[in-house]
Specification:
The protein has about 210 residues and is α/β, with parallel strands linked by helices. The protein has 7 helices and 7 strands, in the order αααβαββαβαβαββ. Strands 3-2-1-4-5-7-6 form a 7-stranded mixed β-sheet, sandwiched between helices. It is globular and about 60 Å long. Bound molecules: S-adenosylmethionine.
Amino acid sequence: MRKHRSPWIRRRLKDQYYKMAKRKGYRSRAAYKLLEINSREGIIKAGDRVLDLGAAPGGWLQVASECVGEGGRVLGIDINEVEPLPSGNVETIVADIESDEALREASKRGPFDAVLCDASPKLSGVKDLDRARQFGLSMASLRIAKAVLKRGGHFLTKAFDGPEVDGLRAELRDYFSEVKTLKPKASRSESSEIYLLAKGFMPRNGV
Ligand SMILES: C[S@@+](CC[C@H](N)C(=O)[O-])C[C@H]1O[C@@H](n2cnc3c(N)ncnc32)[C@H](O)[C@@H]1O
């Protein structure tokens, strides 16, 4: 008898990035988003210290760990536990990035050359609510980035495209020398997901 599979499962089975991630041992298909962004934009270099917010299950941590190499360090923070990675240059912490605890823990281990955020809320299906929650996470990641980035450092965060993102872009332009909107190939075309990349952090007095 033929097994009945939901459309979601069928799409996932067909998805080339999902298959590639499985084959290469990456924990998420999202790893390919960071690989593409980094190969174009060069935001993570050997020896860097990188902070990854919303890091579970760990695909971006794996990519960042490879890029920074033995001389670098990667800190991952997620509200859920990240299964330990074999790489000796990765540390993970369980915390809510919207909390002061996450800010404190990241600050203790900073400063960082790059802050990445791929955090996303559990989707409710109510578009406005999901966009508002995603926006909250993007703003929380910016708050942490402003506190822990080195001068000249880079910030990459996920957002759902919408009117409120213009405000976020404007704030990024105040603190960074260059701001871009990216849609990596591995990001599903039907999703309003985008990534904002801000390069060249310029801290201000009192930030
Ligand atoms: C799309 S996944 C990240 C995938 C990751 N970049 C990877 O490649 O494995 C989104 C993550 O955001 C995390 N997250 C959502 N809200 C959070 C919060 N308030 N604080 C910390 N992590 C959060 C979720 O637990 C989830 O692991």
